[in-house]
Amino acid sequence: MIERTVSRNFEPDIPDIVIRRLPIYVRALRALQASEIGTVSSDRLAELIGVTAAQIRRDLSYFGKFGKQGKGYDTFHLEQAIAQILQLDREWQVALVGFGSLGHAVAHYRGFGPSSFHIAAIFDRNPEKVGRQIDGVTIMSDRCIAAEVARLRIQIGIIAVPAASAQEVADVLIEGGVHALITYAPIVLKTPPNILVREIDPIGALQSMTYYLESEQ
Amino acid sequence: MIERTVSRNFEPDIPDIVIRRLPIYVRALRALQASEIGTVSSDRLAELIGVTAAQIRRDLSYFGKFGKQGKGYDTFHLEQAIAQILQLDREWQVALVGFGSLGHAVAHYRGFGPSSFHIAAIFDRNPEKVGRQIDGVTIMSDRCIAAEVARLRIQIGIIAVPAASAQEVADVLIEGGVHALITYAPIVLKTPPNILVREIDPIGALQSMTYYLESEQ
DNA sequence: ACTCAATTGTGAACTCGTGCACGAACGGGC
DNA sequence: GCCCGTTCGTGCACGAGTTCACAATTGAGT
């Protein structure tokens, strides 16, 4: 039987970069399962993902031993194990702030699949949008953020408002008790050190790509 | 006068991570200018951005000398210099593929500001959307991608289609001549080595954050 | 003109993550 | 039961990027 000792809170110093690769592994393993493939070698998985096999083995070794020598990894069990490490085996309550076109896209995103994330509240400052129902969730005024987030025990906030209001929104989300933020606003948020923030920055990605492109054409 | 010798194609080995920080600097410098602040020290800038002052100085030193000892950096000139390094001082033609809610959000994003990026073509596979006009751009069938991208000399593609079609879309965009891709699809694209790809992965960001969160509440 | 506080640019040290390479383990075939 | 090809897990070395720390420069004040 495959080792199941998943040591989460005990191994203290696992690089964040490793953690950020785990979702990629989960995805690839799910795709393999969908193709009825029950076993992969680190070599094959590496090729699919575009990293080295050594890196995959090293990454996994932070958490335990999941493979069988001479055979590889069981796609189902490894996926389950990583999902458990990432705590994807439970449902997280998410607040979405900002229901412009970006917020709309976030709310309607169907890539969550059999997802670990539930949008439990949506907020917008525009009174005309307040009251509208989206998938059974009623859009509320931005003035309710802290109270509602606390009431619903929401753990994660998604900030999809213009840069000018993003800091303010972050503040009230944190006041309400979230410990993690995804922000689409192109500013650096000022947050207490115990708050986790991930910036989604497509414009920055664009702007950094043009460095490499040839000017003339 | 501040050194203006911006050596782009000559310094060969500037780490990509440095390049990816440059847009952040540009943003911060623009915000400072908007606040009528003409000069910043690396210390102050570092505090605003949330990195170390040494890192900023080191990053800039890859490209030249932009500061004045005892004084700091001129916000206007430094911003101009970095924008030039990133080639933001010209307009880039972008193709957007997929006009679902995500594509809609991308097309309507107003954070481009006085932007270096122009959405010159939009494609969707849904015949009902084809023909619709968005900001003067007519949505075209996905079957035209390669031809139109080539005709319009488009350099950058944004992939906002479901994971299942993303690889196919990437292929035709590259066939049409783009050298850079932004993709929102949660799959690893297979592309030739000379093609630049940046993945925007909010779901991955979420999934990696939950690793750190406390389960109970 | 001189002093002094501020601040840059960079050599050197350090840290952290990656990749190599190999011993150990597994399992199929004979 | 033994051999052999495959693949894992990991010690070790390497390398990329970060931070330290300081000489050099600047300009304001006296």
The SSE string of chain A, one letter per element, is HEHHEEHEHEEEHEHEEH
Strand pairing plus helix content of chain A: what structural class? Answer: alpha/beta
Oligomer type: homodimer
Uncertain segments of chain A: 1-10
Largest interface: A-B, 64 and 64 residues
Shape of chain A: globular
Mean pLDDT of chain A equals 92
The strands making up the biggest β-sheet of chain A line up spatially as 6-7-5-4-8-9-10
How would you sum up the major sheet of chain A? 7 strands, mixed
> What is the β-strand count of chain A?
10
Helical content of chain A, roughly?
A: 25-40%
Percent of residues in β-strands of chain A: 15-25%
Give the CA-CA distance, first to last residue of chain A: 58 Å
Rg of chain A, alpha carbons: 20 Å
Please give the count of helices of chain A.
8
Description of the structure:
The structure is a homodimer of 217-residue chains. Chain A has 217 residues and is of the alpha/beta class. Chain A is 39% helix and 18% strand. Chain A has 8 helices and 10 strands. Chain A has a 7-stranded mixed β-sheet with strand order 6-7-5-4-8-9-10, with helices on both faces. A 3-stranded antiparallel β-sheet of chain A has the order 1-3-2. In chain A, strand 2 and strand 3 form a beta hairpin. The first copy, chain A, is globular. At the A-B interface, helix 1, helix 5 and helix 8 of A face helix 1, helix 5 and helix 8 of B. Chain A binds a DNA duplex (30 and 30 nucleotides) through helix 3 and strand 2.
